[in-house]
User: What shape does this take?
Amino acid sequence: MTQDIPQVWDLLKHFKDWCESKGWKTSESEDWVKKGAEYHNFLWTSTIHLSTFKRIAINHRCAINEGISYRVVDVSYTAWLFPQPPPENLIHVVREDPELLRRNAIYDLSYLYADKPTCLRLNETRSSVFREFERFLQEKWGIEVKSSQETLVEEV
Assistant: This one.
């Protein structure tokens, strides 16, 4: 099934369907999952400036569409999905800042379409939704999810 791995936006749509089957709330037009009182936001980007990342990651708020209006909610956790390798300086900043590490997960999806699809992750959050996302990648699409720390150890 690995040859049929969808693009990031479709992958998220499939994951949101998976979450809805668990009774979690999702948005049709936005990439968040609400489990209990917590919002788990998914942001995908090819690249991002470090200053922009920090502003979004530290602020941890997002606008939620409710009909014709919006309301701002506190986001408990944010997953950053990178279809290309994330900037090394971003990884370094997250690893060195306990608050960023606690609330943000980084997923490097650049190896998804290789012979052996792999997703590298930096996830030290307590987000059960992100753990479910990793399980979803493995069970539904055959994607091996590896800690970026494991990969660094393997390369040494």
